[in-house]
Amino acid sequence: MGCCLFTALVAAGPRVALALVWLFTNLVSRAFSTFVVPLLGLVFLPWTTLFYVLAYRPAIGISGFGYVFVGLGVVFDLLAWGSGARARAQRARPAY
C-alpha cells in the first residue's frame, strides 16, 4: 500500500508542480507561445516540460546550464517511461 502511494506521488509530482507553475505564474506562457505544447508536455513529458519552463529565459531562450537542466528532465522522463514498461513486463510474465 505504501509503495503504491509513493509511486503515485512520484508520478504525479512533476505534473502537479507544472500545473501549479502554470496556474500561479507566467513562466509557462513566457516559455511557450501556445497552450498545446505545454499541455502535451504535461501529459507525456512532465519532467522535461517543467525543467524547460524553469530554465527558459526571455530573449535568450535556453542556454548554458539550461541545456543540462532540460537534459536531466529528459533522462527523468525516460527513466519513468522505462520503469513503467518494466513493471508491466514483470506483471505479464508468468510465475514459475
Q: What do you see in this structure?
A:
With 96 residues, the chain is mostly helical. Helices cover 78% and strands 0% of the residues. It has five helices and no strands. The chain has helices spanning 2-24, 27-31, 36-44, 46-55, 65-92. Helix 1 (2-24) runs parallel beside helix 4 (46-55). It is elongated, with a radius of gyration of 16 Å. The two termini are 25 Å apart. The mean pLDDT is 84.
Q: Secondary structure elements and their pairing?
A:
Elements: H1 2-24, H2 27-31, H3 36-44, H4 46-55, H5 65-92
Helix pairs in contact: 1-4, 3-4, 4-5
Number of strands: 0
Classify the oligomer: single chain
The low-confidence parts are none
Task: Please indicate the percent range of residues in DSSP E strands (runs of 2 or more).
Answer: under 5%
N-to-C span: 25 Å
Q: Give the helices and strands as they follow along the chain.
A: HHHHH
Query: Which radius of gyration do the C-alpha atoms yield?
Result: 16 Å
Class by SSE composition: mainly alpha
Shape: elongated
Helix segment tally? 5
Average pLDDT, rounded to a whole number, is: 84
Largest sheet: none
Give helix % range.
Answer: over 70%
Q: Could you write a compact summary of the structure shown?
A:
The protein is mostly helical and 96 residues long.
Key words describing this protein structure:
96 residues, 5 helices, 0% strand, 78% helix, mainly alpha
